[in-house]
Amino acid sequence: MQNLGNRMAVNLDLINPIEDLGKFLETSVVWRDYVEAWKSPDVLMSLLHRFAPAVKNRYQWPWRWILLRRLKNRSNLELTVLLSVYRRGFQLTPHSDDRYKLISLIHYLPELDSASKGNGGTSFYVPKSRTKRRHLRQFSPWSGGFRQYLPLWLSPILEAGLTRRYFESEQIDSNERNTFEKFFSKACDVGYARNRISGFVKNDWSFHEVDLTNFPSSEIRRAVLINVRVHPSRIVERISQFESRIVRMKKALTRGAESDKLI
Ligand SMILES: [Fe+2]
Prior knowledge:
It is built from seven helices and ten strands. It has a six-stranded antiparallel β-sheet, covered by helices on one side. The longest helix has 29 residues, at 234-262. The protein folds into two domains: 2-231, Jelly Rolls; 234-263. The chain is of the alpha+beta class. The model is unreliable at 1-5 and 10-18 (pLDDT under 50). The protein is 32% helix and 26% strand. The protein binds fe (ii) ion. Residues 95, 97, 208 line the site of fe (ii) ion. The site of fe (ii) ion (FE2) has 3 residues, from loops.
């Protein structure tokens, strides 16, 4: 279980049950059936079939052909089921999700007598007509480190987002927000309601937000996240490992330099 301030995410996957939740799933027939129903191979294939055109278009041109070949191999794909639990004050500011996510569904689970009045759903954004891919760099990891010097076409798909707020007392960076609103406008708000599922295909532009500023403090915002994901290729895994090694080395060198200063 991850605890990130007012946010917690719990893996509902039966194959890898986590502590009490795993025991709960073993004893709750309803929830076990629910997870098993989502994890049926038919669901994965139906989702891929339904959203195939959008999935095909999500990659940058030079990479599209190679990466679509990976999607044709079923063993590279996985459907995960997660329970997300948020409290009032948490703000999952606009972000487009990680690059290994293909399709995301959000199943809202409000209390029967919820006083949320729709607060706690998901807001979706669309780029303005003049917004270009290069405008996304500032919200992505390609704005810093060695990547800032590289052309963006080297990234088959971008992951980007604004700084998150985990606690009610934290301030949101208004400059960053204003810049984002220069390039994106809100497309719709999906309310937090029973028997409702929203979703999207992850691409460069799939910005969405969860704002719990006005969510009732006596309730917990609950949703199940159903994600179709593609596993990273071996080359990409190696590059990521190499990058994290460089980051660790840089941190160690900085720490070393700082302790030298203290002496
Ligand atoms: Fe998200």
